[in-house]
Amino acid sequence: MRTVLVADHGTAAVRIIRACRARGLWTVAVYSDADADAPHVLAADEAFALGGPAAQNAYLDRRRLLAVLRLSGADAVHPGTSGLAADPLFAAAVTRGGRVWIGDPSGRRPLQEDTAPLDDACSPDSPAPLAVQVQLAADRTGAITSLGTRNVSLQRRGAVLAAEAPAALGTTAGARLLDLATGAARGLTGLATVEAQVHWDRIVLTGVRPGLDPVFALTEAAAGVDLVGLQLDLAGGALLEAALPEPAHRHAFLFDIFAEDAGRGFLPAAGTVESIEGADEEAVTWAVQAGSPVVLSRPGPVAQLVTAAGSRGAALASARRALTGVRLAGVATLLPFFRALAADGAFSAAPADTRWLQETTLPVLPDPAYSDVEPDTGRRRLTVELDGRTVTLGLPAALLGSWAHG
The whole model's pTM is what? Predict the structure, then answer.
């Protein structure tokens, strides 16, 4: 591998591009009209337009992505954390030309209510289940290992808001879950996430997802392992024994800072980012910068914050400090909600379960600056001649409009 096309956007793409560049690989980014000046575009060595104002649809356009693959000359594709990672047809189209698919090409494995009885997953006094993920890695020989668990119970509309690692499971429950997860992922190569619902009396496996999960940075912080680097090594044929360092055993928290107003029932927000503060790369990965437009259909967070320490209490204290220092002006976000969550006594005392959001009220008021008016993200494309060659320029529609009106 020399050149990697990163077929994703947002915080995941930023982290993937950084990991690739740290290994001396040339990186190619893609972008929708709304993300033309996004941090992942600026972080890459080169970038190609996918076109279209709807960010979510643009990044899943297989035809356009394959066209960029040909134009860029990339010899490897990293599908990121989207559904592309579990798309066997797209993986086959990439590898058909001899290119490397960074991940397992076989696709997601749905599991039909694979249930195992359990004695001590959690206390019978807490009947609500935990939504848990197991992070696994496997090489081409079939060797497979776990890099830890994640509690992803704090979700809304199917997306994780906040997570912590490791998940608080009893010894028997943890061992049983690991056995089930390893068996379910057997035969995959690269990274995989096994999803489960852990009840006090049983474990229900719900799916196996190849590649990186959107909250993979949580495991990187807790285990001290560069998961993207490990993916690259395994895709190149390395064995786990040589590629995987001894994992650390820390506690970590992750907060996906979506453009939403928790005080209005997590309504999506829109607007233009005026400024950001607290851009510490050690804790915060930004998907936007000052001047970035944010549309209602944005599928991912505007930033992701991760902290880790030797204990849960220390990691949560670190998260409180980091959340206090992060600011984003111009668009309503979940920052006030996360500050209240990190300061909540019940959350400090025990991890959240799947009913936490429904049963807990945090002191978060509606953001007075909330707006659902989307900025103009359209781009006008002009064909010009430069040094005898025809070149297409894409410029913000608003900029051209201001020029036209003097």
Answer: 0.91
